[in-house]
Amino acid sequence: MASETNYSNLQLKDRDGQHQQWIFGEIDSEWCVAYRIRNVSGEPTVCEMRVLPGTVSHYYDTAKTDREPGPPIADVPRGGIKSRMIRGLKPDEARREALSVWRWTADASGAQAGEVLGRRGYSLQVIAGDAHTKRAGRPGKPDEFYAEIGAAHAALVREGSRKPNVALADQRATSRGETIKPEQIRDWLYEARRRGIVRRKPGPSWGLTAKGERLLNEAKG
Fold first, then answer.
1. What digits encode the pLDDT tens for the residues 90-115?
2. pLDDT surpasses 50 at 122
3. Confidence (pTM)
4. Residue (of 194, 102, 113, 86) closest to 150 by Cα position
5. How far is CA 108 from CA 11, 111, 117, 183, in A?
């Protein structure tokens, strides 16, 4: 699987009425993978992986109606599933992608976040703990830093970038000599949203909040 995987997320109930998520990603031009995520003791947990011939879009669409990825539509490529493909699967990355959806849900729910997540068995403590565990003990970055990241990311979105996190990581590597992963950009944007510096969800109005604009202008002097 390519190191810069574009994931698609689908939340639905299984046939027993339990909440689950399917995280889809391309392996290469002929294969894709579907991870089933279930809530186990308040934690998003990968409980199944399916390697499937064909494109993500087909399985995503069938899962919306059948509650799980449908039967393969493509002939199995010559040679079938290869060891390198299995070694390239990233269940931990799929789990983080699922967790990011929990965070979006908490952000969008505002004061009702605990109630909304509770109905699905999700844990606010897990979301908060996972978001900050790796940064425990490290000094936080100033608000102006997150305003800069948010503005640069919004500019790439407006320009039509299909992978703005990847593009921003590359941009900073070129201009600043930094070696960072797209996942780091994602975490910075989450922190920027938490601080009220960028708007909640990407879209036509994605960009800095009034607070973010003020911080960016102050940083520019």
1. 898 888 877 777 766 666 555 565 56
2. yes
3. 0.55
4. 194
5. 16, 9, 11, 21
